[in-house]
Amino acid sequence: MLLVVLLAAAFPGVFFRGEMISPADIAFQQPPWASYAPEDWEGPSNPLMADALTLFRPWYTISREAVRSGAWPLWNPYEFAGIPLLANYQSAVFYPPRLLHVFLDVDLATTLCILLKLWLAGMTAYLCGRTMRLLRPASVFCSVGWMFASYNLIWCNWSLPDLSPWLAVLVMGSELLFQRQYRRGFFATALGATLLLLAGHPVSAFTMVLGLGVYFVVRLALEARRGQAFLAPLGLWAGAWTLALLICAALLLPFFEYLGNQYQGQDLAAFGAERGLPLSASAVFWVPRFFGTAAEGNYWGELDSNRYSMIYPGVAVWLCAAMALFARRERRETRAAVMALAVAAGLGIALAFEVYPISLIHGLPYLDAIKRSYHVCFAVFALPLLGAIGLDAWLRQARRGTLLPPLALALAAFATVAMVWQFNGAIIRMRELTGYLYVQTGLAAGFAVAGLALLSAGVRLRRRSLPGYALAILLAVDLLVAHRGLNPTIAGEHLMPETALTRYVQEQGLGGRVGTAEGGVPGGLMAAYGIHEWLGEDGMYPERMIRFLKALGPELWNAMEPACGIGCYLKHPEFADAFPGDASERLRLLDTLDGLEVYANPGAFPPAYVVPEVRVCPDRETMYALLADPGFDPAQTALIEAPLTASLPGTGRGTAEMVSRGFTEVQVRVEADGAALLVLADAYYPGWAATVNGAPAEIVPVNSVFRGVAVPAGHADVRFTYFPTVFQTGLACSVLFLAAGSVAGLISLRSARRSAVRKQT
């Protein structure tokens, strides 16, 4: 109940005005939504959060519609002529809380999921503290510190904090193994690992597990275990992770396949490792808004403000963590836990800040593709847990000497902030931020003084529970103040409303495939309306489509543009050069709605068409050169990469009619006067299968990006389906090991109850 009350304080618009957690007012910056902004709207609350609208909202909407239509949520047909959905990982279609999106309105379900993930983070952190035998006030401190951790609040509209509750469960499972509660430790670890893997952010999952692994190994080493005491927790921990990986095979196998088929160029923002946090960002450890925020429009750091702000743990966490590091303890296990947490957290922070020589790790295979700042994932949990351990030590044996470490840390923090301020003095004065920084550092100093005062007052009390709980509340207030205004809420009627333009496109049947970039519409926003975008936005991009687009560029309009099946374009009147050369002469203006011009593309090919001739190209570069040639005719010739198993005579012509088009199935009826090649202007990707008149048929990549199937003379019913072998294998593995793990858990539970009964009798 305490956590629910605190959530109400964090999101009063949700609890008291029925609003939704969403940065949807970002859309009011551009047409067609600009004319639907509320009268009092002045600008986006937090422009940094566009991903919530262009990525996550479309994924959840498409997943829901796929399930409701009776299809597996495997494929997104609305962007880039089709793109994997489940395999992009962040869509998290198998993560249990996502079931809310199937049964509820997408925006309501998203709001409930955000509240649920934060509440679960707080609850699991509390259980972790209690498992580590911390007193209740200390466990509440850990709970509040993790639920409202900057990392969780900053990213709550993304999938990153979906993993946070399960990191706490994994630490709890490790602790149970160290306590020789092997049965509970194994299943807690397996549960936490499974849900963490399903939660939907592979990079965060990797960095969290990296930190957890360091903690686990260092803890084993520091406790100097021998024999079974060493082998049992290590073996069970590895066994639990193996079980979790097998249960998640239905997600992991398609994801690994996608990794081999994704575009890996460094010229897309979604790919490539960004450099780490600069040393000056260390000021944010104690003053969360030292570099401003994107929401306030005064950010002056080197990376985006989220990556700075997410490292702030709260002043009370630092004060109590200092006591954890220097407190005297009777139990060796607690000493080992503190040191292991400190080592793992220190490693993550060093990697995030690229501290030499630890930064050499970034050069290792796969690690070189991780955004450096994500390496703090484990550290941001370890710090409030260390703070809780320090508070627990203070609650048990407070004395005046115990206040020296937090006081020394507060002085060190003051010196660090002062040095960063001095170093950046010219920039601060130029941007006129001096007054702003005085306020921010004053707030941090105030919370530090309040924390030290509570610790000092508690020394004189025999029962220190009240000051302990007060520190937890102080921490909550600190974190809420630090991140005020960063997670906007909005009334449901203003959240991505239907517009005259979107209604017109749908009613006129123009949504088959639409060019939206020419209208300045960010990719992904139209997909949630059921409008097929030629481009889009995703966390991963298919290699074939991106190479095709980059290789052809404006030369796409020379010959290949009609073959892309873009029946409609949206154009912003101010974009004079939206269409290259004389391309605009091919288009016909239909209407102007909500500030955008709607153009029909009369020359666009239908979504499926028949080509009489094929030509084999020896390599992609040769193919791209031919496709860019103005003399190339995609209606007459299809370029393929290898000879067909059945040769075509080169004279067949005919018509193709789209019978039906679902999420994982497309049916086309063909009439041809000779053997020919049916081209479906949807993206070619491994896993699609085809039948012609019920017999299996080979799918070949046509013009590098589309699908082609040889059809015989006469009538042919062609059916494309997407239920890839890699997913079938993974699904079978997941079902088998989920059932086996569940049965093993029930047997273990029954055995535990019998043992408890025998002990009682």
- Overall strand count: 19
Computed Rg: 29 Å
Strand order in the sheet with the most strands: 12-13-19-15-16
**Strand percentage:** 5-15%
**Largest sheet, if any?**
5 strands, antiparallel
Helical residue percent band: 40-55%
The number of helical elements comes to 24
Flag low-confidence runs.
none
Tell me about this structure.
The chain is an alpha+beta fold. Among the domains are: 2-49 and 103-255 and 278-489, no CATH class; 608-723, Immunoglobulin-like (Sandwich), CATH 2.60.40. Helix content is 47%, strand content 11%. It contains 24 helices and 19 strands. The strands form six sheets. Strands 12-13-19-15-16 form a five-stranded antiparallel beta sheet, with no helix packed on it. Strands 5-6-8-7 form a four-stranded mixed beta sheet, covered by helices on one side. Strands 9-14-18-17 form a four-stranded antiparallel beta sheet, with no helix packed on it. Strand 15 (688-692) and strand 16 (695-697) form a beta hairpin. Helix 6 packs antiparallel against helix 16 (377-397), helix 6 (136-147) packs parallel to helix 20 (465-482) and helix 14 crosses helix 17 (404-423). It is globular. The two termini are 37 Å apart. The model has no long low-confidence stretch (mean pLDDT 93).
